[in-house]
Amino acid sequence: MEEIHRLHLHALAILVIVAMVVPSTVAGGLCRESCGNIPVRYPLGIEDGCGSPYYRNMLTCADNATLRLRTPSGTYPVTGADYSDPHLVVTDPSMWTCARPFTSVHAAPFSLDTSTRFSLSPRNDYLFFDCDEARVIVAPRPASCDRYPDRCDSACDSAGYLCRNLPGCRGALEEGNMTCCAYRPRATESLRAMLRHCEAYTSVYWRAAGDKFPPYDQVPAYGVRVDFEIPVTTRCLQCQDKSRGDGGTCGFDPATRDFVCICDGGWNSTTDCADGHASGHHGSAGVIAASVVVSISAAIGIGGLWYIRKIRPSKVVTCGVQSNENRFF
């Protein structure tokens, strides 16, 4: 009997601690606006419930310093983000660069989940080095390919501009006695097939260096450009509108994926930050906190019943007489 009372006291103490700690922790956590020197804005988000649900759990912030993108092929550092021309720049540590020019790496090439709103930019060019010419067609790209690109998908261009003008180290291939060809795969599978027969690969994207005479103001740089879409909704625009209070951050309820306007005071609204706090609009923070408390309460309750059954005396009721020794409650 004493053991049962002690168990009840322990369960009550845990519930009180959870009720005090969990709501304040979740409700006080606003969406981070950066990771290191990379800005993080809508529709992207690091914390669950921030940004658009289309990009949920796609980004992480390692050691509060390095933004990383999750993909089916791995997790990759993000070196840049642009929201006016929406895209991320990602680096693949296994790729060839001027700093690692002679490293032979047979790793899974960078790939994206096609079910997400991320997509590989057409501004990416892929270069392959020291390919087995018995398995890969390595030849100069005919001029007709510019007009009929579908007829030239199977060849890797040995006369590509970037093979002759590698960013930052133009003469590296000649010094290392390496061969190079440029290839634009249509799918990740063809990229994997190429890498099986080549020693290394790299990705070069075309970065805008100015705002005059596009696309002639672009320069090549190492990395993978990943484009993303910015879903624009009326509710998000109202949430961000500073004429409606202080302006909030667009987010969503992790439990329902419904829209939530996250306000600076640590409270959430279903509309904007003008009067949502006064009118009692509460967002995902309360839902998450309540869900956690209920889940822990249920776990404690189940554990308590299991423990009670475990310590219950094995004596049975004889002839309908129940003594203090075999009484259950």
UniProtKB/TrEMBL annotation:
Keyword Signal belongs to the record: yes
Stretches that traverse the bilayer: 287-308
Membrane topology, from the record: Single-pass membrane protein
Gene Ontology molecular function, alphabetical: polysaccharide binding
Pfam family name, one: GUB_WAK_bind
Compartments, record wording: Membrane
Coiled coil listed as a keyword: no
One GO CC annotation: membrane
Highest taxon listed in the record's lineage: Eukaryota
InterPro entries on file: WAK_GUB
Residue intervals of the Wall-associated receptor kinase galacturonan-binding domain: 31-92
Protein name: Wall-associated receptor kinase galacturonan-binding domain-containing protein
Organism, as annotated: Panicum miliaceum
